[in-house]
Amino acid sequence: MVTIKEQSITKSLMTIGVFFLLLLTLVGCSQSEQSGDETTVKVEYNVEGDNKSINSITHVLKSEFTSPKQKYNEILKNPQNLINMDGKKVLNASNGSELYQYIEELYQPYFTNTGFDKFFVGSAFSYTMHSKDVQIKVANISITKNKDYKDDYDFVVDVKYKKVGSPEKKYQITGLATIPEEGKIGAITYLDDGGLMENIKKNS
Question: What pLDDT is recorded for position 47?
């Protein structure tokens, strides 16, 4: 008998498959890994014991807003990573797939178990995998311990966005990271991206 939990997991994986079908249609493959100047990380209201949490937030934000990702492109180009779903070829994102293992290795150590599951389905790579011929890199990250909620950290990310053949543009992303246990992210919420996602989709 299929349990409610198994049905939920299957539904989530189908949603992921549709998501990566969209990426497969829009993205194309960039060939190089993003490199550049060191990112400046500014921390305010830091207290003893916060370092692991700050490091986790920084790692995830730097990865999310850095493009292209060479490893992802290699996975995308490998026909063995494609599966048929409703008559269409989609990138296999199920548990155990090469894509899942890549994202798991990149992010899971920095999340709680439930936090990683939510992030994988809802947010992972949402900014850096929507379009081809795009470079995104992080210039500055500011992280502030929320004064009202002990588990929350406010962050500001300054990024440089450039589509090949167009001038570089700067964007600022604000958001909130919830850390229910030391060094482990329970949730990341982007509050305002200054129009970055809209521009990425427009240029896809």
Answer: 57
